[in-house]
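User: Need the bound-state model for zinc ion:
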Amino acid sequence: MWDGLYGPVEVRRVQPYEAHKEYICPGCHRTIAKGTGHVVCVPRDAPDLRRHWHKGCWERRG
Ligand SMILES: [Zn+2]
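Assistant: Bound-state model below.
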């Protein structure tokens, strides 16, 4: 889904002060700690499948 299966993926920056929860990064399956800047990736045609990624994992995916 991250390379066009559900349309273009919108990538939004999440600033540290906006990160109020922990997430599991699909790239490395590790935790993104609260208060860590990261990115949220939203397939245009399947916004329910949005996922939070470490910025570096997103850039290195695939
Ligand atoms: Zn990661």
